[in-house]
Amino acid sequence: MFAPLRFDGKVVLITGAGGGLGREYALAFAERGAFVVVNDLGGDIKGGGKSSTAADKVVAEIKAKGGTAVANYDSVENGEKLVQTALDTFGRIGIVPCHTSVRENLINRVHLRGSFLVTRAAWDHMKKQKFGRIIMTSSAAGIYGNFGQANYSTAKLGLLGFSNTLAIEGQKYNIYCNTIAPTAGSRLTQTVMAQDLLDFFKVEYVSPLVLWLCHEQCEENGSLFEVGGGWIAKLRWERTQGAILRHQNQSMSPEAVRDHWDKICNFQNATKPASVHGDPHVTSNYAVASTELGIPVSTAVEFSYSNMQTILYALGVGMSTKEPDHLKFLYEGDSEFSCLPTFGVIPSQSVLSLKHLTFLMSLTQLLHGEHYLELYKPLPTSGKLTSRGMIADVLDKGSGMVVLVDAHTYNGQELVCYNQFTLFLVGMGGFGKKTSDKAKVAPCCRQAPLCLFQAALYRLSGDFNPLHIDPSFAALGGYKTPILHGLCSFGFAARHVLKHYANNDVSKFKSIKVRFVKPVLPGQTLQTEMWKEGSRIHLQCRVGNAILLQKERFWVDWDTRGLQSDLVFAEIGHRIKDFGPELVRKVNAVFQWEITQGGRTAAQWTINLKSGTGSLQKGPYSGKPDVTFTLSDEDFMKVVQGKLDPQKAFFAGKLKAKGNIMLSQKLETILKDYAKF
């Protein structure tokens, strides 16, 4: 058996407590040890008159049973006076079930505005003591509507919206707010309900729900309940899957609405939205429509910066004057003063417009799952860059939604870097789409202690999400303390690899792709493990035994005398290793490439997608390839980067092909997401 619920020492302010439900609440709370403020204006059911009799009578009943109570006769429109009675008598206020019993002309003033004023007067006191329980009293007329009760139902549904917002704003202060829609015999219903119904819907069948919702053990928040006659039920909203009627190069018309009306109104597989941010179908539909229509996630964003920002970023990812070769990133007067390659994430993050993101979800639901960065040339140490962002795709991961956001950053007209943000929206899965062709695919050891103010320092580079600085906000996301920015640990890992494999030569950096697995806390020691496989550096980061940055491909071109195309073919090799059987089934061909440099053949590659599980080999094919391509290393890179159209290259004589040329169309399967390096 569970222990009985007690309210010893809790102070409860009950409005409209001179009779009916309010009286029953007052008696029930007092019986279980609460100190009760019994408020009642003493008016009649039409709002007229004023008398202390009703409140005094209930106080007397409570005291006769050994309880503690005090009367208050003020109107709820004077909410501060009601709360002051509690403060003057008991020194605090903790629980406020808002119950009113006036109709007709005073409805909005008393029901809606009165509940607002009483709650506002108690709110700051609840915040200071980190405890509060509030109950709003709505009605079936407010939820469903009722003939002849337009004013009453308006006020009662308004209380539900008020309650839901209080639940959101009060949660971090341990202030919970719920709404009930009771059916009970009272002064308002005794003239319209038969006696047998009054007996069935006694007020004592409502108060147990109110007491439970007001108890400190109850964690229910922001909910709506119908209650009466011993029956209690929770209500929630429901939404159809709906239909997208807006398409590229097509206008949205009333006829389209008519033609899709059955789908719009079909509640099969309906969703149950719980917040303004929380429905995956609304979010996914917005993202899908944005992708199809080519709607940017923000307007073109300019980012002006000076040497100070590049130095501040270097400090934010752990660069220090203790290391002599760090000085080139920290001192603008150094002869080799350079910008860290991973600074490329800073100008691009502005495309993640908070207006768009907070429309889609609460920031506490947003996680940075993966990140891909590619540089086309070393970043200037100061200047003005322009970034443009687009939603590339959305994916259903069951427990959440993945949104891929592409950001291209330009220096004037020249593309200098590309970022792909893989954002994970917690709790927004379940809308269906599982795969995407838009995602970028992605030992020695170095350690770096993270100072306690690392997150506070890194955020000065432009990522001001309060999750990384505000303990209260971090708690809403389920974290005991603020966590480090994922892109800060990203920067630490990247500079470790840059140091070890390229001796901090930024010109050798090409691209990086990582997956964020677990959060890092300021003050921990970050350990980067890295190893070389072919032309690729792999890495993973740990704190103790926990992997934080999952091993992913980090590409570094440290031999500037080699061919750029070698890196692309290395990536193709990885793809064949991962997806060989599927590629053989789709392509069924052998391609030979002859890469030239300075007019001479510099390398030959064979892509065999015709037999076995597929293969890539350096050198000519032993038999007769289906297609042979010849072009320079420079032009090859332009083709795979999308800077040179293959057909134009063919007709211009830059790309030569022999064999079954039609098979070249199947190369898109391999090169549509070309090897990032």
Automatic annotation (TrEMBL):
Keywords: Fatty acid metabolism, Lipid metabolism, Lyase, Oxidoreductase, Peroxisome
Pfam families, per the entry: adh_short (PF00106), MaoC_dehydratas (PF01575), MFE-2_hydrat-2_N (PF22622), SCP2 (PF02036)
GO cellular component: peroxisome
Localization, UniProt: Peroxisome
Transmembrane portions of the chain: none
Residue stretches making up the SCP2 domain: 580-672
Major location category of this protein: other
Domain Peroxisomal multifunctional enzyme type 2-like N-terminal: 303-427
BP terms from Gene Ontology: fatty acid beta-oxidation
MF terms (GO), sorted A to Z: 3-hydroxyacyl-CoA dehydratase activity; oxidoreductase activity
Chain coiled-coil ranges: none
Annotated ranges, domain MaoC-like: 449-540
Pathway, per record: Lipid metabolism; fatty acid beta-oxidation
Domain of life: Eukaryota
Membership in a protein family: Belongs to the short-chain dehydrogenases/reductases (SDR) family.
Protein name: Hydroxysteroid (17-beta) dehydrogenase 4
Originating species: Scleropages formosus (Asian bonytongue)
Gene: HSD17B4
